[in-house]
Amino acid sequence: MSKAASRANGASTKRLAEDGDICPVCKSSRYLNPNMRFRVNPECYHRMCESCVDRIFSHGPAACPIAGCKRTLRRARFREQTFEDLKVEREVDIRKRVARVMNKTESDFETLRDYNNYLETVEEITWNLILKIDLEATEKRLRLWEEAQKAEVESINSTVSRRLHTATDTVDPQSDTARVILKKSGVQRKALGPSSANTPEPGAMDTGLKDTGFTFAGLKKRVAPEPEKPFDPYGGWNIEPQYYTVMDDYDVDFISGAKTDVHHLAGGYDIRDFYSRALCEAFSGFGVFVEEEVIARENQASGDVGVGTQTAATVADGGKEVNMDDIF
Amino acid sequence: MKFFIDELPVLFPYPRVYPEQYAYMCDLKRTLDAGGHCVLEMPSGTGKTVSLLSLIVAYQQFHPEMRKLIYCSRTMSEIEKALAELKGLMKYRTEQLGYEEEFRGLGLTSRKNLCLHPSVKREKSGTVVDARCRSLTAGFVKEKKERGEDVELCVYHENLDLLEPHNLIPPGVWTFDGMLKYGEQHKQCPYFTARRMMPFCNVIIYSYHYLLDPKIAERVSKELSKDCIVVFDEAHNIDNVCIESLSIDLTEDSLRKATRGVNNLDRKITEMKSTDAAKLQNEYAKLVEGLREAEEARDENAFMANPALPDDLLKEAVPGNIRRAEHFVAFLKRFIEYLKTRMKVLSVISETPPSFLSHLRDLTFIERKPLRFCAERLTSLVRTLELTNIEDYQPLQEVATFATLISTYETGFLLIIEPFESATATVPNPILHFTCLDAAIAIKPVFERFSSVIVTSGTMSPLDMYPRMLNFSCVVQESFTMTLTRRTFLPMIVDRGSDQNQVTSQFEHRNDPQVVRNFGNLLIEFCKLTPDGVVVFFPSYLYMESIISMWQGSGVLDEVWKYKLILVETPDAVETSLALETYRTACNNGRGAVLLCVARGKVSEGIDFDHHYGRTVLCMGVPYQYTESRILKARLEFLRETYRIKESDFLSFDAMRHAAQCLGRVIRGKDDYGVMVLADKRFGKKITQLPKWIQMALDGKNTKLSVDQAVGSAKAFLREMSVPWTRGQMEGTSTWSLEELETHQKKQKGMGVLGVEERRAEGRAVDVVMMERRETVEVTEVTEVDEFGGGEDMDALMGDMDA
Ligand code: SF4
Ligand SMILES: [Zn+2]
Ligand SMILES: [Zn+2]
Fold it and tell me: In this structure, what are the phi and psi dihedrals at residue B490, rounded to the nearest 5 degrees?
């Protein structure tokens, strides 16, 4: 591979002269003011320098100073630009919104193919938003979908809580929310009409009950999570003795006397405590091999590729020193 | 001669065989019988290649299943040499057997070396040749032609389709020259002839890259069957080849070019949508079905292949969000923009792939899965768009490969972003290294796929380092020496100057005036006493330059100038080859010359200084790697943590293999002789890391010499060497005739297990402990690692001669 990808000479000089380094509002350039920083507002994604933002918007919302924009901007929403390409900056903002709503994962679908179809639809929605195709309709469908999702989650939550309280409520908790959506969907159906050719039709509702904005083939029904098991303080660790079992009684001479001696029974003393204690002491250290530990300590390497990569990262960062003296 | 190893008849194309060659062949056969991998070290100049080929060809012809041999070497000249040897061997076999065997042996190299097209072959750069060839041979270009469009095709390629696909070239062994001639006569392309004939060959000889670089291997070596015998010759550097084949560097400039590439793609898609939307729709439909066309896999012209993807993933369909061409292009754009933002850092960043991926997802909503399909998706798109000027998309291809790699491997890779070129730089000029830490990743498919892999070279000590680093297990591990009747090379370690001051290239001392002066004296003295050529190796260019300028000031060079012509290697290939030519001329006439070069440079790896071209080699200082490199540090840490190889072990192993390579440059055969000087006090403690054949020749009293003592020994040695020596005196010990070989075999049969004497007679490395006991200590395990050997018999012999 191109190990020899040489650094472009003079890349740095170019960096200073890049066209984007002049503020379109006040025309000052980074060349004169090296500390100049740019801000964008996700309302219209027009760039301007920080001092312009301060000057124009410090007295409250104002119109964007870029010719032909006229949007009202607020100072609080100005932020640093992450991507060089403002189109990408905007795209990512839109994706953030879509991703919040369309958050299914592969395991939510019956087959991989269904999941892939879902992914494609999501991608199409995103692009509709980005390219402002069918903006209204898409927004609406997104909203519908979000509400439907929320409703579903709520209904599950209520099932869970019902299960917890072992109440046998016969009233379907879904009906309330369902009715709300039903009312809305009637209006939406008409508004949606024939939407973009790419996106699937809002789907003929098999139940004819609610419009969730989208339907995806092969989407599994949301199931309520398993009720949690009681808390185990040992985290599954077994404290049963491993090498022996304590029996109820041992027939040994030197304790036979103690067993019957009333003096020993004072204070609720139980001979079985003595058994378990004695056995524990006898067997403690069993299964511990000193040699192994010594070896493990000596070559303190995990032999694990993951750990190796992780420590290598620390080293390259300068976070840890590698022992590389000319040891000779 | 013809002899038997167990039941296997071997035809060896020379009348005499070296004992070590015989032993080498025995071990090879053992490996093949057992069906496993092996590591063999055998000094250069002992006919390793011919032994290898003789045995494996004999094995192929003897066993009905005819396992194919894939012989990988490093450089063009080595590949050519191997082809010539193979040709000689097959000629000899034909003579001996009285009939010609059905046999094909081919070599493969890049289009640049094999192209016949009158205008294409004149291109200077290999990638341009590849790209232009593709535009003349791709399937869609041909389709266009059939539709009657006016496009140019390569006739040499077209003619191939007229021939029987399994018989493009008659049987026999074809050298590159032979292929070119045959191709010119029959107007057929030698490159594609070789490519297409690979499944029908008995022996294939090509460069490592065709097997190790996953991007090439996928295309070229896919159809090779599992029972192939794979040989990596000159494999001492194989770990670095593996690592380089999976590492990528990106700069701001290459990202800019990648953006340009994406924008071009975007335009092309829009164009195609208006002219030929059906094609895109067709591609889309195929991706939905998750189908990969059969011919697609075999497409010999594919733009790029997928770098090392696990098989299960290859069968999966491309994720839905990059199925459509326009979505995919936007996806790439977003990814490149993200990389650009990452380049804007002001301090060094080092990240593991998972942490990179999670940051990427947070910022751009790019998931891991589509990223993994990037390389494949891009190839498909380029094919659909029928792009011909593919070299323009090189940077984009690199980005896609990077995407696929970083999302495929969670471990064994590291991302390092260095904003500044050096510690003192103030203007940022960032570079993103995506570096592979684990050499085992690239070579793993090879070990898994092929049942016998033979890793061999002249310098592989310590032998167990390779199995550990490359993570494989081997059935045979052996080191051979050169059996000699007189000592023809004299290794020495010089640790101090005549003034008793140390000699070292240790960082704190390397610029001390005494050290520099002692190095200078060493050079002057050896230039005085050596006839013909002297080769000097320095640890780095930097040190070489600084020491040369200091010598210039102190008059050392003027002194040397009286005895030898001085030539210097530079990083520039043309300059260096000019220097080499002058050096050779100077050695051929007159007093000879001294060549100053670098232990990790081109000269140390590929140039032979046989006979009078190199009578003395001086290794000035231990050739350590530059230890400040972050990539090296990361790799060392990884090796320690994962394979339990200590940092210092690896560094000195690496330094010593380079030192050994340098030393080996001057001895290229049994009739060659030379002096080898290791000038650094630190060498004394690293003797065990030298190859066995050097270790065994290194006399105990030659390991701590001052400059004047070394000069004394070297003078005595060279005087001895000037005594004429006939071939006859080598017979019996260092070369065997057929009878001698058979006597040895009989003796061996009676023994069952090899004793010390027998091991030694066969040129196997012998343990010093065993030598002292002088009894037939049984060597139960041949895979045992030998420690250190002395040459007591040699001394006796030398004593006899002195008398
Ligand atoms: S097909 Fe062969 S001859 Fe024709 S351009 Fe390609 S490499 Fe050259
Ligand atoms: Zn401004
Ligand atoms: Zn605006």
Answer: -120, 95
Q: CATH 1.10.275.40 in chain B: give the residue spans.
A: 247-438
Interchain pair A116, B437: CB under 8 A: no
Rounded Cα distance between A227 and B661, Å, is 67
Pick the CATH number of B489-722 from 1.10.10.10, 3.40.50.1010, 1.10.287.130, 3.40.50.300: 3.40.50.300
Q: Is B796 helix (H, G, I), strand (E, B) or coil?
A: helix
Pick from A88, A306, A327: CB nearest B411: A306
CA distance A53 to chain B (A): 23
Average confidence (pLDDT) over B181-200? 91
Answer for the pair B586, B612: CB distance below 8 angstroms, yes or no: no
Over residues A134-175, the pLDDT tens digits come to 889 889 888 888 888 888 888 888 877 776 665 444 444 444
In the chain, the amino acid numbered B342 is R
Closest-CA residue of A relative to B333 is A88
Distance A70 CA to ligand 3 centre (A): 6
Which chain A residues are within 8 Å of B334, Cβ to Cβ? 88, 91-92
* Residue B33 reports pLDDT greater than 80: yes
Contact A7 B350 (CB under 8 A): no
Is the predicted pLDDT of residue A206 greater than 50, yes or no? no
pLDDT of residue A202: 43
B787 or A129, greater pLDDT = A129
List CB contacts (< 8 A) between A328 and chain B: 622, 652, 681-682, 685-686
Instruction: Among A134-138, B249-253, B481-485, name the one with the lowest average pLDDT.
Output: B481-485
Residue of chain B with shortest Cα separation from A1? B245
B328: pLDDT strictly greater than 50: yes
The pLDDT assigned to A195 comes to 41
Residue B789 CB partners (closer than 8 Å, separation 6+): B481, B692, B695, B696, B765, B766, B767, B768, B771
Residue B318: pLDDT above 80?
A: yes
Nearest to B276 by CA among B384, B382, B380, B377: B384
Taking the CA of residue B471 as centre, how many other CA atoms within 13 Å lie in the half-sphere pointing to its CB? 19
Q: Please name the residue whose Cα sits nearest to atom 5 of ligand 1.
A: B133
Report residues whose beta carbon is within 6 angstroms of any ligand 1 atom: B 111, 115-117, 120, 133, 136-137, 154, 156-157, 189, 191-192
Which amino acid, B518?
N
* Cβ contact, residue pair B411, A127, below 8 Å: no
In tens, the pLDDT along B52-90 reads: 999 999 999 998 888 899 999 988 888 999 999 999 999
CA distance A298 to chain B (A): 11
How do the domains of chain A map onto residue ranges? 18-81, 83-231, 237-328
Beta bridge partners of B251: B431
The reported pLDDT for the residue numbered B754 is 64
Q: Which CATH architecture has domain B247-438?
A: Orthogonal Bundle (1.10)
What pLDDT, on the 0 to 100 scale, is given for residue A20?
Answer: 59
Would you state the pLDDT for residue B233?
92
- Is residue A7 a contact partner of residue B421, using CB atoms and an 8 Å limit? yes
Residue with CA at minimum distance from ligand 1 atom 2: B189
Helical (H) or strand (E) element with B336: helix B325-343
Yes or no, beta carbons of A116 and B246 under 8 Å apart: no
Q: How far is B479 from chain A (nearest CA, A)?
A: 25
Q: Which CATH superfamily is domain A18-81 in?
A: Zinc/RING finger domain, C3HC4 (zinc finger) (3.30.40.10)
In sequence order, which residues have a C-beta less than 8 Å from that of residue B627 and are 6 or more positions away? Answer: A324, B633, B651
Question: pLDDT value at position B376?
Answer: 84
Cβ separation of B638 and A312 shorter than 8 Å?
yes
Tell me where in chain B the CATH 3.40.50.300 domain(s) lie.
Answer: 489-722
Residues 272-311 of A with CB under 8 A from B: 299, 301-311
Would the pTM of this model clear 0.95, i.e. be above it?
no
pLDDT of residue B623: 92
